[in-house]
Specification:
By secondary structure, the protein is an all-alpha fold. The protein has 2 domains: 36 residues; 44 residues. The protein is 92% helix and 0% strand.
Length: 80
Amino acid sequence: MSCIFIAMVTVGGAIIGLIILGMIIIGSIRTARSGGLSDHDKDARTEEARMIQDIYNALPRMEERIEALETILSERGHKS
């Protein structure tokens, strides 16, 4: 009785393992064919990269403004 149970569990595990392996292979083939990203994902990444570049390019100006505000606040602090 226990031999039959062990055989069923072993065969069932092997079948599940083959199914998972097949899904992995199919997924990798689909990814390779489509280039990995859909057009929507590529557009989203391009937009994110553009936004990051805009933020990076605006940082020096923001730093100048912060320094100006620090100067104003320090001058006001000395007058009191």
